[in-house]
């Protein structure tokens, strides 16, 4: 039977054949050699030895069943043998299967429980359940026959119980109190593998160590992937492993580790229960400490008596504990066998009320959040001692939990556990805490007895004064001689309040130390009165506040500088806004023949950021009308200054009579060479009132919008690089003939630009708004500004032109 209910693979059948458990595979005939004959002889002898052991284990199981029949039927051995043969014929079972059933019925132990569980969980229970019972009982017989030989136990477990599960090797590890592991028995590994793993030092991570640490079975489906080494990992690098702690009575004596040659699928619960039952059998072999008779009281055990003598010699409170098991043999609690003479119960109970009680009854909080019971249980199970500083011990006093802080030591000695604790002295702890607080806060304490003149300083106060530890302390009345002269008045009021009026007081002063260093000190003092209400002493503290003083000075200076900077920034922005509004009024009317011109300027919503947008409408000496709109990149005084330079430059260049393209080229030269680090966009048009022709050019700016008979469209884009990008740029120029009633709009991007919409979509929205707007020019511009859906908080300039 395989552990997963499937046929065994070919490689396992070949392994069994090589081990002598099946027919050998056919190989080509070879000429015998002396070495080959010797190997064959050794393998044959090994196979015969294994068969003999298996037969002996089986006979031991049958003899055990005969003994049970003799006890129940009160018959002779011969009659029991005949009865067993008759039962085998009637039940149609082999003697081994029937013997396993008889032992299971009589024992009612873990092995029988595993067999019953297998029957309940298996769809076809009869043959498999019988096989499980036979295998486990046969293995148990081999373990009992070799109870003092872990190597023989390993051989018996592999042959009788683990090989049918597909396992190829088994290792029995013994756990030492120091945390190390020793290979007590092994079977199935290569000849040179066991010596390499005889001893595993503490702290080395292995599969067995993980099971011992977790105190639970550990299954590694693929150890090569999981990265935990162990015995045989070179033989089967991808083989699965199962490690199960082996323990009895709450104590872990070692680990049973089972190896498979291939990765493991998830183990069935009944298979894992079988391996746990085998681990419990191993625990009886690994338990080398002789146990006293069950009737003997535990207090008379030699290890407990020696531990009591040891506890009486200790100066700290000590408790000797022994395990208490439930009917199933599992650890349930610990019995307090002895408390030493130094014992002081946290709840205030006498020693007699605690001695002899169960640990969880005497200290129920130990099983709660403190984790003390779990710690004792782990030490008892593994043997590894436990040390901890400042651990909380909680006891119930009148149903009120009272927690004390203590240093804990837990160690196992034989079958008993020694618990030692040292309650931290609360007075010393508070004094130590106060000392650290004074050192961190640079606080020195003092007390001055006015009747005797005795003065007490702590070490920090000597450091504040810059005096050695053995120097005479400075009396409170002599403090003015060590202070700065400017602090004399405040120090006098302080001394009168404390010494004459007998009231607590404080004062800040500059202390001149003997080493020439000036420290800022705060002195706090209070009077101490005797029974007659007369001034007896003064006590108080000095605190070094030099760092705080200079921090406050630096903070005040920083606040003054910040206020000055804010005032300068506000004044600068105010002047820039005044300059911008003086040049660019929000409403401006331009008189031009043949045209009605209206302009609008809307500053940014954030008044602290002045912008660089501009507009201009100018009648030139030639009779042409120049219309322009521009936008200097950025905000602030630099952008406003650049805007003034470019607007005035364009006005001066337009007087020359050059066309829009030439004007843009010259303005680009001005931007690139004369204005530092400025870039801008602009659009410029020259309108001839006589011919109604508009010549225009652009430098990276949005095109004008033309409205005729309720339809709005943008001028087609023409080439034109933004101003200031390159030194020499040629700009294109176009002509548009306007008709009476036409409207022309020139604007900056603050009218249409949005962060989440493309420029094309924004321009389309503008065309729809212009087409549906009022015919009146002033109303149309006001409507555009009111309904603008721009979200960039930028300046906006708009020029509207209507042809008469």
TrEMBL record:
PROSITE patterns: ANTAR (PS50921), PAC (PS50113)
ANTAR domain segment(s): 42-103
Basic and acidic residues bias spans: 9-18
Keywords: Hydrolase, Transcription, Transcription regulation
Domain PAC: 505-557
InterPro entries, per database record: ANTAR, Bact_Sigma-Reg, GAF, GAF-like_dom_sf, PAS, PAS-assoc_C, PAS-like_dom_sf, PPM-type-like_dom_sf
Cytoplasm recorded as keyword: no
Region of interest: Disordered: 1-35
Pfam families, per the entry: ANTAR, GAF_2, SpoIIE
Name by which UniProt lists this protein: SpoIIE family protein phosphatase
Naturally occurring in which organism (per UniProt): Streptomyces racemochromogenes
């Amino acid at each position: 039977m395989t552990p997963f209910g499937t046929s065994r693979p070919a490689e396992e059948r070949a392994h069994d054949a090589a081990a002598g458990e099946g027919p050998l595979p056919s190989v080509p005939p070879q000429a015998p050699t002396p070495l080959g004959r010797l190997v064959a002889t050794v393998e044959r002898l090994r196979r015969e030895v294994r068969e003999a052991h298996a037969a002996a284990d089986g006979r031991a199981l049958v003899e055990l069943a005969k003994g049970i029949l003799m006890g129940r039927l009160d018959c002779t051995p011969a009659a029991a043998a005949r009865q067993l043969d008759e039962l085998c014929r009637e039940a149609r079972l082999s003697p081994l299967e029937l013997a396993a059933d008889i032992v299971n019925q009589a024992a009612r132990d873990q092995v029988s429980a595993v067999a019953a569980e297998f029957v309940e969980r298996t769809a076809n229970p009869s043959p498999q359940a019988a096989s499980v019972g036979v295998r486990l009982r046969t293995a148990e017989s081999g373990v009992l026959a070799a109870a003092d030989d872990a190597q023989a136990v390993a051989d018996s477990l592999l042959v009788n119980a683990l090989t049918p599960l597909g396992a190829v090797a088994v290792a029995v590890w013994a756990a030492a109190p120091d945390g190390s592991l020793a290979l007590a028995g092994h079977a199935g590994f290569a000849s040179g593998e066991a010596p390499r793993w005889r001893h595993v030092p503490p702290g080395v991570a292995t599969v067995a160590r993980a099971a011992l640490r977790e105190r639970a079975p550990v299954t590694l489906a693929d150890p090569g992937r999981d990265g935990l080494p162990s015995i045989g990992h070179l033989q089967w690098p991808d083989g699965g492993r199962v490690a199960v702690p082996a323990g009895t009575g709450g104590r872990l004596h070692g680990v049973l580790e089972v190896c498979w040659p291939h990765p493991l699928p998830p183990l069935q619960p009944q298979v894992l229960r079988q391996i746990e039952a085998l681990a419990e059998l191993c625990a009886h072999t690994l338990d080398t400490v002789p146990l006293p008779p069950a009737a003997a009281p535990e207090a008379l055990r030699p290890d407990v008596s020696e531990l009591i003598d040891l506890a009486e010699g200790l100066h700290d409170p000590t408790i000797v504990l022994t395990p208490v098991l439930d009917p199933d043999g599992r650890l349930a609690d610990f019995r307090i066998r002895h408390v030493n003479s130094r014992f002081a119960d946290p709840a205030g109970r006498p020693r007699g009320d605690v001695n002899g009680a169960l640990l969880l009854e005497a200290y129920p909080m130990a099983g709660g959040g403190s984790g003390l019971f779990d710690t004792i249980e782990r030490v008892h199970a593994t043997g590894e001692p436990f040390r901890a500083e400042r651990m909380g011990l909680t006891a119930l006093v009148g149903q009120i939990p009272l927690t004390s802080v203590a240093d804990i030591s837990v160690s196992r000695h034989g079958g008993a556990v020694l618990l030692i604790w040292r309650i931290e002295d609360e007075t010393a702890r508070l004094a130590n805490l106060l000392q650290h607080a004074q050192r961190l806060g640079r606080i020195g304490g003092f007390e001055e007895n006015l009747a005797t003149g005795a003065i007490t300083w702590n070490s920090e106060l000597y450091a504040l004064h810059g005096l050695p530890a053995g120097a005479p302390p400075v009396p409170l009345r002599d403090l003015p001689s060590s202070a700065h002269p400017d602090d004399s008045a405040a120090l006098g009021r302080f001394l009168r309040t404390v010494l004459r009026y007998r009231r607590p007081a404080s004062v800040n002063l500059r202390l001149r130390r003997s080493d020439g260093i000036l420290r800022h000190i705060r002195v706090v003092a209070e009077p101490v009165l005797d029974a007659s209400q007369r001034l007896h002493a003064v006590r108080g503290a000095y605190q070094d506040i030099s760092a705080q003083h200079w921090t406050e000075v630096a903070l005040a200076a920083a606040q003054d500088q910040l206020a000055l900077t804010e005032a300068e920034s506000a004044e600068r922005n105010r002047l820039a806004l005044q300059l911008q509004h003086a040049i660019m009024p929000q409403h401006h009317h331009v008189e031009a023949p043949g045209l009605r011109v209206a302009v609008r300027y809307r500053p940014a919503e954030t008044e602290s950021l002045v912008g660089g947008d501009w507009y201009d409408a100018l009648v030139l000496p030639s009779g042409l009308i120049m219309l322009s709109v521009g936008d200097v990149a950025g905000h602030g005084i630099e952008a406003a200054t650049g805007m003034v330079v470019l607007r005035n430059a364009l006005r001066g260049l337009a007087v020359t009579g050059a066309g829009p393209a030439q004007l843009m080229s010259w303005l680009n030269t001005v931007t690139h060479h004369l204005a530092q680090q400025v870039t801008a966009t602009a659009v410029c048009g020259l309108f001839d009132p006589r011919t109604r022709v508009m010549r225009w050019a652009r430098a990276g700016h949005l095109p004008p919008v033309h409205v005729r008979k309720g339809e709005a469209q943008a001028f087609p884009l023409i080439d034109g690089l933004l101003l200031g990008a390159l030194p020499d740029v040629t700009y294109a120029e176009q002509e548009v003939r306007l008709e009476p009633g036409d409207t022309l709009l020139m604007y900056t991007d603050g009218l249409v630009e949005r962060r989440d919409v493309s420029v094309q979509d924004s321009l389309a929205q503008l065309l729809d708004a212009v087409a549906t707007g009022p015919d009146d020019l002033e109303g149309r511009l006001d409507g555009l500004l009111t309904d603008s859906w721009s979200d960039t908080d930028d300046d906006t300039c708009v020029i509207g032109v209507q042809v008469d």
